[in-house]
Amino acid sequence: MIGGGNGSFIGAVHRIAANLDGQIDLVCGCFSGTPSVSVASGRNLFLPEDRIYNSYQEMIEEEAKLPEAERMDFVSIVTPNHVHFEPAMMALKHGFHVVLDKPVTYTLEEAKALREQVKVSGKLFALTHTYTGYPMVKEARTRVLRGDIGKVRRVYVEYPQGWLYSDCAGVNKQAAWRVDPKRSGKAGCMGDIGTHAFNLVEYITGLKAIELCAELNTFVPGRLLDDDGAMLIRYEGDAKGVLTASQIAVGEENALKIRIYGTKGGLEWCQEEPNTMWMKWPDRPREMIRTSNGYMSEMAAHNSRTPGGHPEGYIEAFANIYRNFALTLQAMKEGKEPSSLCLDFPSVQEGVRGMQFIETVVASSNSDKKWVKMVD
Amino acid sequence: MIGGGNGSFIGAVHRIAANLDGQIDLVCGCFSGTPSVSVASGRNLFLPEDRIYNSYQEMIEEEAKLPEAERMDFVSIVTPNHVHFEPAMMALKHGFHVVLDKPVTYTLEEAKALREQVKVSGKLFALTHTYTGYPMVKEARTRVLRGDIGKVRRVYVEYPQGWLYSDCAGVNKQAAWRVDPKRSGKAGCMGDIGTHAFNLVEYITGLKAIELCAELNTFVPGRLLDDDGAMLIRYEGDAKGVLTASQIAVGEENALKIRIYGTKGGLEWCQEEPNTMWMKWPDRPREMIRTSNGYMSEMAAHNSRTPGGHPEGYIEAFANIYRNFALTLQAMKEGKEPSSLCLDFPSVQEGVRGMQFIETVVASSNSDKKWVKMVD
Amino acid sequence: MIGGGNGSFIGAVHRIAANLDGQIDLVCGCFSGTPSVSVASGRNLFLPEDRIYNSYQEMIEEEAKLPEAERMDFVSIVTPNHVHFEPAMMALKHGFHVVLDKPVTYTLEEAKALREQVKVSGKLFALTHTYTGYPMVKEARTRVLRGDIGKVRRVYVEYPQGWLYSDCAGVNKQAAWRVDPKRSGKAGCMGDIGTHAFNLVEYITGLKAIELCAELNTFVPGRLLDDDGAMLIRYEGDAKGVLTASQIAVGEENALKIRIYGTKGGLEWCQEEPNTMWMKWPDRPREMIRTSNGYMSEMAAHNSRTPGGHPEGYIEAFANIYRNFALTLQAMKEGKEPSSLCLDFPSVQEGVRGMQFIETVVASSNSDKKWVKMVD
Amino acid sequence: MIGGGNGSFIGAVHRIAANLDGQIDLVCGCFSGTPSVSVASGRNLFLPEDRIYNSYQEMIEEEAKLPEAERMDFVSIVTPNHVHFEPAMMALKHGFHVVLDKPVTYTLEEAKALREQVKVSGKLFALTHTYTGYPMVKEARTRVLRGDIGKVRRVYVEYPQGWLYSDCAGVNKQAAWRVDPKRSGKAGCMGDIGTHAFNLVEYITGLKAIELCAELNTFVPGRLLDDDGAMLIRYEGDAKGVLTASQIAVGEENALKIRIYGTKGGLEWCQEEPNTMWMKWPDRPREMIRTSNGYMSEMAAHNSRTPGGHPEGYIEAFANIYRNFALTLQAMKEGKEPSSLCLDFPSVQEGVRGMQFIETVVASSNSDKKWVKMVD
Fold this sequence. Notes:
The structure is a homotetramer of 376-residue chains.
Chain A: H1 9-19, H2 35-44, H3 56-65, E1 74-77, H4 85-93, E2 97-100, H5 108-121, E3 125-127, H6 135-145, E4 152-160, H7 173-178, H8 181-184, H9 189-205, E5 209-217, E6 228-235, E7 240-246, E8 257-262, E9 266-270, E10 276-280, E11 286-290, H10 298-302, H11 314-333, H12 348-365, E12 372-373
Helix pairs in contact in A: 1-11, 4-5, 5-12, 6-9, 9-12
């Protein structure tokens, strides 16, 4: 692991998620740019001293020298956005598979370069777009792609949070880097959570965004990046979308929600009650779909662990990415064809797509033109 | 009453709403442009034969000839949009107060002319923007205006319906006129329900829309008017809004919903559970506000009839417009100053505003410019 | 109307409910045992002076002397429980139909005597067990009786309220008579709301309770009647029930809820969201049944007024009793057979059943025996 | 681990829960009474061959012979009820700490003997009453014990499931042992899930049940144990409870729910939405309490892993028992006093209490007496 030292939120989540299914062991790490923090963090994680490194460069180099059976199989990179690209490139080049926190890189160019390197290296690459790890999101995709709701017409996706409603960068470490353009990139709220919403739509519907009309807002005085935004999106096949994301929606926690309406039916899913999905019909009662029931698809069942009514949550969704990554990796190591059930995790292409989204949104927000085509 | 013959939906609702509080009696009517239908309808309503009229012109003229104590006090006009203006003008000119179903007229010019006539005549005028009749909507307005949520930053308002998801104009009388530009006006879905959503925001926040960026869609082949649309709106005070309305959102009934976030808190209300409102706070638990509790404002209490937990609905909201209109009318007849609690019903200015909204949305949807200022 | 003077809750609800559909006009009343209050109340209701009476005896006698076309058709009795029996008997004996608030009488013996008088007189009699007036309750009954959920096994019915959680009899007029055995009868909470819950089960399932095991509690010090209770009930056909009712469940409003499970499926309905019912199945998704959809039964449709998504509430449910009573009465007056759709309102037999329930519950609560058979 | 071979539900959950926080490694196991199954299961779990045992006796004896630094620290027993007592006793006697699935044993006598052995041995003992591991349940306990809702008056606890609504013992391995008295004990549904409900009340309120009045039912023909039941319970301090549990409540998943009302307020929590709790008040709005907010107690925060809005579920609750057990064990090994935050996991006394509950319920169900005192 690179990053995720003591006090990190997302690093701890990565470790729990990786642990959960007993497929992955943490064997080494560089948990901070500050060596003493890295060492202290590694000790807390019961790592032997010689596998705790002072820099990610050192770690990648040293691990690459170990015999194949002993060295790490892959690296998890859980640093802020501006420290994604270099360690990822270096790991790939040294022959390691990579799991990378999103957004994939700081710039679109880096993302494309990384995509190229993944292709060239033939290594596995996973991007932790967590929300597509939920079994119900996979169920939604399955149902939409097989035509249950007909041709998609209308998509509403929203991602309201409230935790940045005031100027808390001075006291909240999580907030500090997110509102700092040097560490976050061109977009704040839209990069941090808007990309999740954008990814969710393309994942579930299989439709690509064509052009969009966006307005980004900065409500908290003195903030340098957007903390709120909304847009109209035109998708392939004449489907129309509205995407909103906000981090000043006071009192909201993490209420990512998607609603899709087609010619035959509709569906609705909200991340805060992830085990439930609604199917809506013109002429019969709305149905409450619940995880781990017999009527669920094979894809959803593969990504569930407990029987109906025993709620699974965010950590399990996260763990699904790691588990599918690990199962694919095992298959590769055993020379087998990985199952299509396991191959379903977000990769570098979703990362490139996310960076294209950020570029386009920022361009649109600065433009007087109504529609801006998706940047390529 | 003008319109609302046998089989009419909204006419029946108007009558129930007017009846409900025992303040208003139906004394005469012209219920259809077809005299035999008008007569049959009037008989079903227990009207004497001589108060059932063959045309609205006849009704207004004949009633005006009756002694003041016998003639109707006011007229309710519940016809399709294109038959709003003329009877309303005629009634005002003959000295009758008017209750008019929304949208106020077929064109903005008519709306302004009607506004002028209301002013000149000194007559009472109510527009049945039903949703502002809910006690909880009045509570929301009270709380926002007194600053409970701070300065308004972000508004989401949505109005999804699904009943026009397919081409049903041939079999559904309610659908037929709504999708017909000759009877509905320039906008379909946006005129029918988008105006409600627009009105709701301005009513609750007291903020005027400045400019907007809209896209109207027609999903059902062959339909002449929009059946769906979405827009970004800029309000006074740098508040930002998203408004969506759809009649092809399959499986949705009448799910008008508003969420408002300010600098201190947020609120949420949905028409389908009208007795509940959510207050959201950055640092303490979300509160579930419920009608008819001791903590409700005087304005909300004035518009409720039953104790907590005895749900009131759409008809009661509708009836609040009629009751407040009637109480104001009584005060006028008794030469008293009407209470501010009673004076709170939508009037012709809200109607003009709605027509301005329709004009602006249609213009924006046809424009390549990102922002179109609200038409005056 | 007898009772329901200024400040009365249930009297006002009766009037609104009777008004709502335009089938019933209030023509006379004795609104209080205190003549001046009766007169003041009648004037507020726009009644002519000569139809406002000083006592119910006077009213019944005077109205009976009027020509048939002028006198009242029926009387609504909305007094506290101890003033139900005598005016109801007197009205029946003078040839008037009767609508009576529940519980039917002060004692079981009175209830039986009233039942006999209804039978002898051939007059119509309605008891306002409001909750069975909801369209969704009628839908539930329709579905259970036609076998949708199979043979009924398990019933949970609960009726929590919180408004009597402290000693408020001194300040709350509604509370004062309910906690007074002289006005309420043998049971407090169980008589006031437990009877509604009991009635709801027998109405929906068509099953009669056979025996029960109850515990009544009085939590508020100094109170003379129960303010809470719970019981196990055995129904015909080996169905088992649990019934709870409480008026000290702090923070609850009027949360009457029923859940029924059969051999094939289950259903759930809650009064506070009355337009929704849940159907539960062993092997397919839970369904959300909503009023005014095309899939609803004829019985439910007959008792609805607005399209889907336009919520109807308590007043409309109440009005359904009055409307069905009025339609039946009209049919009788016209010499026609009333439709089975209209004949579906609670009558004196439900009242007798409620009094039997109260007697049995009180006996059981005082007994060491586990099971007490329903009193006959 | 003892039990939990391939195909086991609860064994897999135990392993995931133990893995989750990186505090515990699976080092050995006997996963089945059938050696070949044990070996196959152990291999799937990446265990070395020499730590996969053919019988639990062998495992305990062999592990005890290993040097302290190499042998297992504790054993998890996840077998059916009738194979709880002997391995637990043997493990304690050989110096191993124990985690045991609930109910603790097959009979009350065994439970008491085990309690004695735990006391004598000084070993740690955890019973996986999972539901008390939820952070929100700990929050509920904290709030009730510090008096937020005043003196407890009324408790409703319910645990409806539907999966045993028909005779599925032949096809469902999970069902087969639960409905078999030889493996389950004296009670079916009440032992399996009723004990969870019972434990939840005593945990949250700190009140002991004094006596109860129960009816157990067997709805599915041919079944030997109860599949449904309900009871009235009297608690210390004159609090009154209703407990229902059912496995024939068709369409229910795992809807454990508790509502508690005191003299000042009430609370409600449902396992299927575990991150939300409702606080109810007589004179102010209901509050929606959500995990991982700043207003949560230290005890709840200690048992949470993700920020607000990132749902945690059943596995995390389960993991809290393991984590607290592991943290306590670490403190013991380091000679430190374990924190009171960590010591909060169910132990053998809760197991004894559960067996007393089962004995009492069965006795009550077979009795004609109304109240049966809790068996000691």
